[in-house]
Amino acid sequence: MPLITEEKFRIGLVQTSCSKNSEENLAKAQRGIREAAARGAQIVCLQELFLSQYFCREENAELFNLAEPIPGPSTSALGDLARELKVVVVASLFERRAAGLYHNTAAMIDADGSLLGIYRKMHIPDDPLYYEKFYFTPGDLGFLNFDTRYGRIATLVCWDQWYPEAARLASLGGANVLFYPTAIGWHPSEKAQYGKAQLEAWQTIQRSHAIANGIYVAAVNRTGFEGPAEDGLEFWGSSFVTDPFGQVIAQASQSNEEVLVVECDPKRMEEVRRNWPFFRDRRIDAYSGITNRWTGRA
Predict the structure, then answer these.
(1) Is 158 a catalytic residue?
(2) Which CATH number does the domain housing residue 106 bear?
(3) Is residue 48 among the annotated active site residues?
(4) pLDDT digit string, tens, across residues 227-240
């Protein structure tokens, strides 16, 4: 009997621009899912908060009206499509948990249309044009894995992608792919000086998660410009998939709407982890300090 019995599977990433019309954005996402499925994708991931433009560019209490419950209308619509196409869908939504309590949440919809569960974004940024702490309560479910029809997966969301602790804990759950729904781009005033370095850092940190954990990593970002010309965000697209050795095996452009479809092979994970056995050599007895805020001098 072979040691590795997990089969190959194909994942899809849907990179789009977003308008101010949520129905248009949902329809565009549904078309992307259909295209991915037609090209053989079995697990399809949408970008962060795909139903709207990135509203966290400002602090506006009226924008809480964009939120919806989970389960809710969007998970119902996507569940129907997942059931029809027999695909798994990872959908990033603005969750209304209760009055005054909101999360940035990824809904995991299985290929039979059922809601497997949710992941709530753990790390919440607060930077110019990324005022997420105004809107989102930090996640309280931890770093989860989900057993879909086609494979075990995990998801983290955008700002989570910069934290190796999050990637490690998600990977330790046994996932084959780590998905990162994302909304990241350039400030107009910064692009000329810092743009290339920012984009490279974003890709490098996620490739490093793939290497350190021997796991496939898939990041799906939006594209297009949103907001006022002098104070908006130019989302840099560049959605990509890296293999467990950090090699980029597919990448979208910065400015075009695209659907990526990539085959993932669990045997590749086994091969990489046998030769780079980071899990074997981890000193789990020596890492207690990682739970401290700071261990240096004040």
Answers:
(1) yes
(2) 3.60.110.10
(3) yes
(4) 998 889 999 999 99
